[in-house]
Every structure is written in structure tokens, then in C-alpha cells.
Amino acid sequence: MSIRVILVDDQDMIRFGLRAILDRADGIAVVGEAADGLTAVNVIANTPADVVMMDIRMPGIDGVETTRRVRAAAPVDPKIVMLTTFDQDDLVFQALQAGANGYLSKAAGPAELVTAITDVAAGGGALSANAAAALIAQAAAAPVVSVDPGMRQRFDALTDRERDIVTLVCRGHDLDHIAQDLFLSPLTVKTHVNRAMTKVNARDRAQLVAFAFQSGLLP
């Protein structure tokens, strides 16, 4: 069965480009589109889908508020991946808090786009390295949230290895690259990530990143 995708972006050319890429990808079918947040809420509510690729900044209501409204009606599915540009990543953290399952730079290539959709549909989280870098830079300059003592306590329960791996995930590294950097197998890295998510009660890697910022794990 194909992964059903809805595209949400106010720019026609962006949606056209995304559809052109996805129409050529095996196992993915675009089943709906919307050019603004209000329309997106309606399309998502009435169109069975697995993944929504959503622009983070749109007229009417932005991607963050759209995600909140979608999650109010559907707490788990469909999965939502925010599409960002480098200068809009001040909203990424808010999107993760609202219930997004990941974020991807609009500069991502076709292979990264398809991989992100596949990973999110399978229960993972799409974490663009560019978006992660901008998120970290902004958090360092002007933290988006104060440290949550309860969340910090959850992260204190992580082992040193789990903490190191979570930090790399937050910086946008994929599991294969983390495995290479730490001289571990990808399966071992995935096991550490899953244990960390269980300990801090994160639903996926994207929420793990949001919780890490709330805990003060990253500067």
C-alpha cells in the first residue's frame, strides 16, 4: 500500500515541485493539497492520509496553529512534517510542541524528501540538519523556553551514551552518521534512541528533540 501524502503550502510552485518529485517515487501517493491553513484543516479531516507536508508559515493561520487544530481532532495520525526555510526556524520548536512529527528544509533534495516521508510514516521523525542547526542557534541566542525541572529530571535518567546520542539527534544527524561517528552499529544507535524516548516519554524523535530543549540538555 502506498504512503498517502497531503501537501500544504501557499506557493503553487512549491506544491507543484513537491508533487512532481513524489509522483515519481515508488510507494508514495499524493492524495490532497491545500494552499492555506484553514483549507488544510478541512482537507486533512476529510482525506485519509498518512503524512502531511506542511509549510510552517502561511496566510490565515500558520503551520503551527494548523497543526494544533489537526492534533485536537487527531492526536496521532496523520504524521505532520513541517517545511521550513532557514529564516523561519523560530517557529520550529513551537511546531514540535504543537504536535508535528518532524521538520524538513525546503532546500532538501528529492532523496531526502522521500526518505523523510518514509521514515515518518514508519513511526520515526524527520529532522533536517539545516533546520536543526538554525533551531540550536536561535535557542542559544534567545532560548525559546525556560528549563522545565520535571523534564530535566527525565533526561537525568539517561545514560551518558544515550545523552550523547540524543544530543547528536538534536543537531540533525541521522542514525547512520551517528553510528559512524561513535563507532557503533546503526541498530545499537537505534536501540539507544528508543530507550531514551521511552525514558522521557517521547512519541518519536521529533518530540525527543523538543523535550531535549525543554530539559536544557542543549545550550
Write up what this structure looks like.
There is one protein chain. This protein is α/β, with parallel strands linked by helices. Helices cover 54% and strands 14% of the residues. It has a six-stranded parallel beta sheet, with helices on both faces. The protein is globular, with a radius of gyration of 17 Å. The relative contact order is 0.11.
Low-confidence stretches: none
What's the Cα radius of gyration? 17 Å
Helical run tally:
11
Class based on secondary structure composition and strand pairing: alpha/beta
State the end-to-end CA separation. Answer: 42 Å
- Output mean pLDDT: 86
- Report strand %: 5-15%
| Quantity of strands, as a count | 6
Query: What strand order characterises the main sheet?
Result: 2-1-3-4-5-6
Helix content: 40-55%
N to C succession of SSEs: EHEHEHEHEHEHHHHHH
Largest sheet, in brief, is: 6 strands, parallel
Based on CA inertia axes, which overall geometry fits? globular
Q: Which terms would index this structure?
A:
about 220 residues, alpha/beta, six-stranded parallel β-sheet, globular
Can you describe this structure in just a few lines?
Helices cover 54% and strands 14% of the residues. By secondary structure, it is an alpha/beta fold.
Write the topology of this structure:
Elements (H helix, E strand, L loop, with lengths): L2 E6 L3 H12 L4 E7 L2 H10 L4 E5 L7 H11 L5 E6 L7 H7 L3 E4 L4 H12 L4 E2 L1 H13 L7 H8 L3 H11 L4 H8 L3 H15 L4 H11 L4
Parallel strand pairs: 1-2, 1-3, 3-4, 4-5, 5-6
Helix pairs in contact: 2-3, 3-4, 7-11, 8-10, 8-11, 9-10
